[in-house]
Amino acid sequence: MQAQIRPVSQSLFQPAWWLKHAHLQTIFAKYLSPKQQVSTQAEMFSLPDGDELQLNWLAATDDQAPLVILLHGLAGDINSHYIQAMLAQCQTLNWPAVLMHFRGCNGKPNKLPRAYHSGDTADAALVINEVQRRYPNRPLVAVGYSLGGNVLLKYCGEQAEKNPLAAAIAVCPPLSLAACAKRINSGASKLYQRYLLGRLKRSTLAKLQQFNEFPLPLTPQQVQGFSSIEQFDEHYTAPIHGFLNAQDYYSKASSKAFLRHICIPTLIIHAKDDPFLSDDVIPKPDELNPHIHYELTSGGGHVGFVYGSVLKPKFWLNQRIPQFIIEQLTK
């Protein structure tokens, strides 16, 4: 009997009454997270093209525990509140973990003019294969946030039945990049665009200084003049990574078209009020498959999902993600 596609699940998560608004969830999650940093071991991981990226390892004493591979969001890093929250949860559970920084996201410029993008699965594949080589007897699970979630889902779709992961979780992934670029360039969401664009501009300006002969006809003045993520993608992200333009990049890098090919248990979490995502991001039933658990919450913003009291705020992702992993590994 053919397995049935799971319907979109309306999650029971309810945002804190004092953080009902999507923007409050999105912004204050960062400031409400525990400030004690989890200690990790940094490793520079060499790539075949001569570049490198940074891995941060969290050790554990439980030899049977799953190893959690983390992928951060756009302009994220080891200090991102959601990464620190998940590392802290892994530490509490005595689970080993590793954060893969995308190229140039560890606070230092990477060695090549190129950077990373939302569909860049090649580096993730190399890291996952290396983790599997080093730990052949451990179940591997991966958690991707926002851009990292899109990369993870695209990777899982590409791998299909050859996927070395036992399970995957994508939090607020921009499944349709064109729709997300349009959404973040409208209304109050422009505040987030300004923040992210500022970080992208700074890293690109550093690259222009780093390379005497930059492979793109870009000047510092042009970079400073970018007013939207789509403009940045049109003039830097797309051409530096071999795409014709921003729309070509969005079409080929969006993970929505890859969902139906996923063959491992996969949890996708979205909030209806996510200021980064429009309704166009929500997949239709024929874009899913029986391996995918798609949970849509009534609130939570973008990688927020805060509940509890003012004095004791809690982060739902810290419970939901490990719960899903345990459920899949104990079946």
Q: What would you note in describing this structure?
A:
- This protein folds into 2 domains: 9-176 and 255-329, Rossmann fold; 177-253, no CATH class.
- Helix content is 36%, strand content 16%.
- It is built from 10 helices and 11 strands.
- The strands form 2 sheets. Strands 1-9-8-7-6-4-5-3-2 form a 9-stranded mixed β-sheet, with helices on both faces. A two-stranded antiparallel ribbon has the order 10-11.
- Strand 6 (140-145), helix 4 and strand 7 form a beta-alpha-beta unit.
- The longest helix has 21 residues, at 190-210.
- It is globular.
- The relative contact order is 0.19.
- Residues 66-307 form the AB hydrolase-1 domain.
- Keywords: Hydrolase, Serine esterase.
Please summarize what this structure is.
The chain is α/β, with parallel strands linked by helices and 331 residues long. Helices cover 36% and strands 16% of the residues. Helix 4 links the parallel strand 6 and strand 7.
